[in-house]
Specification:
two-stranded antiparallel ribbon, Guanylate-bd_C_sf, 8 helices, Rossmann fold, elongated, 54% helix, alpha/beta
Length: 233
């Protein structure tokens, strides 16, 4: 089981640099969004530890949403990059929420052995609210019997960009050749081959014109795969 909740663990408060740290992640999500047209991630959960301002916002989910709304809102004179970050955070996740946790108490500083009785009552109360919310069945996604093979993020991004270009180019070929065949029911082999070659060239140009990451060998492999698949349609 893999959780579909990304928990962003933050100390004391949500600062601007905490949001900046998410910029690369949201850019990766934007690539997935561009590739599929779907929201790439399910839920982003800000977890603020040792929240120090319960007068500003109460502990728990309601107080967290109040703080989150303030931190993510657009402000006059805000730097364009900060607006960009907020736009893509909201576009990359189905849901963004925040939970404020109190300090667990001073007794944990020395020889804490895991006993809940050593935690402050207020912390235990909020922990009982937080854990069921994170582990609710609807927040878990079954990913199969085996975990996917780990890859470097850059390599995975490069492969995703090439796959997106490949799929877009292949779709163009399929749509064009189907439309041509539908409107020309009586075709000889020579005319069909000529049209195939023409649309194939269109598809290859579409692939070449798409933004792609990765080395020449990776791009070449997807180009060859495209040509092979359209030749065998």
């Amino acid at each position: 089981m893999l959780s579909s909740v990304l928990i962003y663990n933050i100390f004391n408060n949500i600062q601007e640099d905490d949001l900046q740290h998410l910029l690369f992640f949201t850019e990766y999500g934007r690539l997935a969004l561009y590739n599929s047209g779907k929201i790439p991630f399910q839920r982003l959960q800000f977890l603020v530890r040792d929240w120090m301002n319960p007068d500003e916002a109460k502990y728990g989910a309601n107080g967290g949403q109040k703080i989150l709304k303030d931190r993510l809102k657009f402000k006059d004179g805000q730097h364009p990059e900060l607006k960009f970050l907020r736009e893509h955070l909201t576009s990359c996740f189905d849901d963004i929420s925040c939970f404020l946790m109190p300090h667990p108490g001073l007794k944990i500083r020395q020889n804490f052995d895991g006993r809940l009785s050593l935690l402050e009552p207020e912390f235990r109360t909020e922990l009982q609210n937080l854990v069921p919310m994170l582990l609710a069945p609807e927040n878990l996604v079954f990913m199969g019997d085996k975990l996917p093979e780990p890859k470097m993020l850059l390599a995975a991004t490069a492969e995703a960009s090439n796959l997106a270009a490949f799929e877009a180019a292949k779709d163009i070929y399929i749509q064009e050749i189907e439309e041509f065949c539908k409107n020309n029911s009586h075709l000889n082999a020579s005319a069909l081959q000529e049209k195939h070659d023409f649309i194939k060239e269109q598809a290859i140009n579409e692939f070449k014109g798409k933004f792609k990451m990765g080395d020449e060998a990776l791009i070449k492999s997807y180009n060859e795969r495209l040509q092979h698949e359209v030749d065998n349609q």
